[in-house]
Design brief:
Elements: H1 10-23, E1 27-30, E2 45-48, E3 55-59, E4 64-68, H2 73-81, E5 85-86, H3 95-98, H4 106-111, H5 119-122, H6 125-128, E6 129-136, E7 141-145, H7 157-161, E8 169-177, E9 179-180, E10 184-191, H8 195-206, E11 212-218, E12 224-231, H9 233-246, E13 254-257, H10 258-269, E14 281-286, H11 292-303, E15 306-310, E16 315-320, H12 328-337, E17 341-346, H13 349-354, H14 363-376
Parallel strand pairs: 1-2
Antiparallel strand pairs: 3-4, 4-8, 5-9, 6-7, 6-8, 10-12, 10-13, 11-12, 14-16, 14-17, 15-16
Helix pairs in contact: 11-12
Keywords: FAD, Flavoprotein
Organism: Kaistia geumhonensis
Protein name: Glycolate oxidase FAD binding subunit
């Protein structure tokens, strides 16, 4: 592959895509290069969005921000912190897990539909994205959405682009709705529960009106079941106290506040419990929370997997070391049995090339997805095969 191209305008990007279509040269699309997930793209040219950087609109009073796709996420978060605002979906930083370098960009966050532990309460990137600009595989730059959150009807390209991993268009600008930063946070820590009891505690907490913003289970000696609250100090204290009383049957929790709580949830967000940049294969498995303990038990018994639970048991992170297929046969069979889906997140290059990293789609869904992809990228030049 030749050296990466760094367009600095949409016009340059349109020319690059048009040339790629004319010469039938597939393009590998990259931002900061921190999210090396999916099948390796076999491309003749690489295109980076890092030349398309900078905040183009920030209205703190309206809680709206627009930025070009190559803008570093750290730059945006620092800007927002100055006004005690944030991207509520708590985007994951993949670098510790994948052993990648570079700086995450807001375009990469959007293209991967990033989210963290707060997803159970706030949703993912897609739920806060209100507008995009993108250059499609036709060499045309289109706009979808706007700068005001509103209901939409018809074809919502912004929502389709979030999580499309660059296969529908190359993002050039994104607009997000923001939320105020919490004044404080408190985490209840219950020790010694098994996975099933932990999920009972977490789902009970989520069924209350106390606005839980994180619920995770970390196995170990002792295990830890974590329930997070955010907001005003008095509110957090009241909700934590009330919920502690309601969950008395699960024990007396320790309370972590502010920096200690934030550090713990940042580690969960970035999948640090599974270790940084290792050689084992890592799977991200989404199931119903009540199926989480069963999935963890089966993965441990059949693959010797190291696991932990997020999203109240609905997200299983699993590290597998040993099977030649990285545990794919077991993982895919098990998730199919419980109606879940699994993504291969970390694996050697050869295994990533051989396996479908994303959950195989039902034939009818695959046909619809292919038609959508063909409508925006008829020549198949954008990240071909990445989501195969």
């Amino acid at each position: 592959m030749t050296a990466a191209l760094f367009p600095t305008s949409e016009a340059e990007l349109e020319s690059i895509v048009a040339e790629a279509v004319a010469s039938a040269t597939p393009l590998s699309i990259k931002g900061g290069g921190t999210r090396d997930i999916g099948r390796p793209v076999q491309a003749g040219r690489a295109v980076s969005t890092l030349g398309l950087a900078g905040v183009t609109l920030y209205e703190p009073s309206e809680l709206v921000l627009s930025a070009r796709a190559g803008t570093p996420l750290s730059e945006i978060e620092a800007l927002l912190a100055g006004n005690r605002q944030r991207l509520a979906f708590e985007p994951i930083d993949w670098r510790p897990l994948l052993g990648t370098s570079g700086e995450p960009t807001i375009g990469g966050v959007t293209a991967s539909n990033a989210s963290g532990p707060r997803r159970i309460q706030a949703g993912a990137a897609r739920d806060h994205l209100i507008g995009i600009r993108a250059t499609t595989g036709r060499g045309e730059t289109i706009k979808s959405g706007g700068r005001v959150m509103k209901n939409v009807t018809g074809y919502d390209f912004a929502k389709l682009a979030a999580g499309s991993w660059g296969t529908l268009g190359i993002l050039t600008e994104v607009t997000y709705k923001l939320l105020p930063m919490a004044e404080t946070e408190t985490t209840l820590v219950y020790e010694g529960l098994d996975a099933a009891r932990a999920v009972d505690a977490m789902t009970t907490a989520l069924g209350t009106p106390f606005e839980v913003t994180g619920a995770a289970f970390l196995p170990g000696e002792p295990s830890r079941t974590l329930i997070r609250f955010e907001g005003f100090s008095a509110s957090c204290g009241y909700r934590a106290g009330r919920l502690s009383d309601m969950l008395a049957a699960f024990g007396t929790p320790e309370r972590l506040h502010d920096e200690a709580s934030q550090a713990l949830w940042a580690a969960i967000r970035d999948v640090r419990p599974l270790g940084a940049g290792g050689s084992d294969v890592v799977w991200r498995i989404s199931v119903k929370p009540t199926d989480g303990p069963h999935v963890v038990a089966r993965l441990g018994a059949e693959l010797g997997a190291r696991t932990f639970l997020d999203w109240s048991g609905g997200l299983v992170w699993a590290a597998v070391d040993g099977p030649a297929d990285g545990g794919a046969a077991t993982v895919r069979t098990l998730t199919a049995m419980v109606g879940g889906h699994a993504t291969l997140v970390r694996a050697p290059h050869g295994l990533r090339a051989a396996l479908a990293s994303f959950q195989p789609e039902a034939p009818a869904v695959a046909a619809i997805a292919n038609k959508i992809r063909e409508s925006f990228d008829p020549s198949g030049v954008l990240n071909p095969g990445r989501m195969g």
